[in-house]
Amino acid sequence: MLIDEIPIEKRFIKLFRSAGIKELYPPQEELVKCGILLERKNLILSTPTASGKTLAAEIAMAKSLEREKKAVYVCPLRALAYEKFLEFKRYEDLGYRVRIEMGDLDSSKYKKRPDFDILVTTAEKCDSILRSRPNWFDNIGILIMDEIHLISSDRGPVYEILVSKFQKLFPEIQILALSATIGNADELADWLNASLIASEWRPVKLVEDVEVGGNKYEKLKEITKKSVSEGGQVLVFVNSRRSAESVAEKLGEDLNLAGTESAEGIAKIKKEVLSVLSIPTKQCKRLGNCIKNGTAFHHAGIIHKQRILIEDSFKDGLIKVIVATPTLAAGVNLPSRVVIIRDVRRYMGGESNYIPVLEYKQQVGRAGRPKYDKFGRAVTIAGTDSEREFLIERYVNGEVEPIHSRLGIEPVLRFHILATIASNFTRTEKALMEFFGSTFFGYQYGLEGFDILIKRILKKLGDWDFIKKQNESLIPTALGNRISELYIDPQTAYNYIRILEIAESENRFPTIGLLEMLCDAAELPLLYIKRQEEQKIWEDAYKNSDKLFRDLDGFDLDADLLERFKTAKLLEFWINELSEETIMEFYNVAPGILYQKLQIAEWLAYSASEISKLKGLKNSLKATKKLETRIKYGIKEELIPLVTIKGVGRVRARKLFNAGFKSISDLRRADVRKLKTLVGEKIAKGIKVEIG
Ligand SMILES: Nc1ncnc2c1ncn2[C@@H]1O[C@H](COP(=O)(O)OP(=O)(O)OP(=O)(O)O)[C@@H](O)[C@H]1O
Ligand SMILES: [Mg+2]
After folding, report:
1. Does 448 fall in a domain?
2. Site residues for ligand 1, CB cut-off 6 Å
């Protein structure tokens, strides 16, 4: 079908054409023909990787825009959201407002009503907006859930809750769910009362193979070498960050894939990678060296900016090979003609297991994307002939697993139950049950026996003073409301309140004690403890026992104390102005992981201060506010006044302070020439302008 035949206004067709689309792919054609555009029915699109699900969704989205209704596109990962956002920006040519929302989860920080026609967002962010700003979505026409199979991942509950909430709030809404890898698409369709388009059609042929390599590295080197010499690019999947780094490094050294024609471009990327942090870390240097040789590694420990640099230079063809952990697998379009899977096993819950077929199919699906290649090839490496046969059976010919709801466990449920009550979504226990009955969980498992769990959670939330029961009504308290908006687990809030009340009554706010409290949150991934360091950390904790809010000899001391203490010490390093490099080295954490922890800790400190405010804990409020600023900037208390100035962070503030400029009034009196020597001309002038 030619795009002119889509029953939609010509301006949209022009837009599709300008993106290089002439003809529809068969699944897209089916979508146009099945009538859901006119009937506005829900739809599950279950078609292979690279089969153009995004454009299919766009056609439905455009139809919604034509009816002057908004569209919301939900993605699991920021990288993917960003890719979609850039694609959808072309709708601005038609006068539509395209907007992306990620990051900060405290929706109360958003005062304004946003103006958008198309919103691209992550699931958590969308849920957070929905909790306190549902009117952002007034006049919504369509909700698109990309990579819907993630319902069965640990982030899945948010996915299904979102769908159920949108359906309840906006009964007219059309829902479109997309995925290449759902084993039970029919079940999903039944849940959503949706039409189902399922097919095996892929625009670019993808050959999946398993090859035997006694030495896996030698095998993957051989395949890489051949592919690159034929003009292809290669994406290798391995199961750990460490492997990603060492394989990328070794491939680069052994094969030296950087073409001489791209020497200039490569030197530029290398320089950019090295200048992302003020002082490049070991990891940055390793990455730089890989890039010099035309390879790169890609995993969660890499800083966001570097990840974008790597992806972009892979797209530009400067980098020939990326060695990645599976985080790169979902949805992205990359020019990797060949995908090599080195590891089909991964450590999960302490033991090594075969990855699900679903993950395998997502990984191989990165090969052969229509924008870049005419064919794709995926090779899994087996150790022996018999393993090869097994892998062909299990993966190449294997069926993708069905997806299952993971909503039915207490920590997840209490989070969402408080939210549904707080946003006045459900007012009674009966309504609550009905609501959970409408989720995928309710659909798959029914609610029998579930009421006991819900009752238990309601009782807890009541005991904690987050909700009240009046007759049959469930009413959120101001505190409960705020906790839901802050998007933290009610258990975290309760943990904090307990400690903050002790601190307030004893009027004692030791920094390490407060940091240890912050770490008592499921939101913050704690540092791991090696057996040989256990003793030392215990001793250190004991030394600090008068500053901690726990009885270290008490019977009720939980098992995570050491992990919390170690993580708290890392945060303490940070706010005592140790350099990032020192901290990363000492704790053996990668830059990306360090920044992730700091960001979460800042959000938790902010949450603790908001909770203190509502509980009327005045001194706790002061202490936690201070802590929030210190974590945000990584500074000692004395620098707090200085970092309020734009452009002044931990390094410049320290320089100014040490030169005797300790406050705003010091700076006001300062000679601009003196400031210039300390922080450079631009910032010096900026300071003077800002403080007058
Ligand atoms: N009708 C078409 N004609 C030409 N190219 C198309 C067409 N439809 C989609 N494409 C291109 O195909 C590529 C893959 O599309 P898309 O990213 O939507 O795949 P997908 O089905 O979402 O795959 P995945 O399951 O991996 O996310 C994109 O580069 C897109 O521009
Ligand atoms: Mg996709």
Report:
1. yes
2. 21, 23-25, 28, 49-55, 180, 331, 333, 365, 369-371
